[in-house]
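Supplementary Methods S3. Complex input for the zinc ion-bound model.
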Amino acid sequence: MQKLVPGIHRFQSQIVQPNQDFFERLAGEQTPMAMFITCSDSRVNPNLLTQTDPGELFVVRNVGNVIPPEGTSNNGEAAAIEFAIEGLGIRDIIVCGHTHCGAMKGLLDPSSLRTMTHVRKWLRHAEATQQIVQENYRHLSGEARLTAAAEENVLVQIKHLQTMPSVAAALGRGELNVYGWMYKIDTGEVFQYDWNEKQFQPLVATVASS
Ligand SMILES: [Zn+2]
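Predicted complex, serialized as structure tokens:
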């Protein structure tokens, strides 16, 4: 807390006050350009890595960037996704995983979650990821296996996303794009899943602006 409170004072004096018009306009409405679903991990900062301002990204974060499938009760992620599409008219949804993900570590080594009942229950929505890694990535170990899990998990969660009626309908109308991203903490690089090549490719400026 010793850092947070002075931070708020600095934010008000150095950011808000010199940009009063911007913040007053923000108070009127939000018109975010995209929805960004990512992990709670403190090293992943959606606005920093996309260099966006308040009001530009509609963000959902949770342990392991998980999207519980349609039919899950009390699905807060589904509520946010539905609101993004129906309420805010968002047409781009990004599901972003990351390297060195603690949730993926737990998924690959469930014994490490022994005392974490809620995490264990939550990660049931990533059971398919676990099985994909177990069956298809036997040859990998350590960091490579963990990264494969994070990448596969992005694809599994995108499949869950597509089970939602509002998403399916918007995709059917051609009014929604869904992207799978992978953020590499060590280098700041972002990779995007290429559905044709079936692999994550470096996200270059030409792709980002298309
Ligand atoms: Zn994570």
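The beta strands are 34-39, 57-62, 92-98, 177-183, 190-194, 199-202. Residues 39, 41, 64, 98, 101-103 surround zinc ion (CB under 6 Å).
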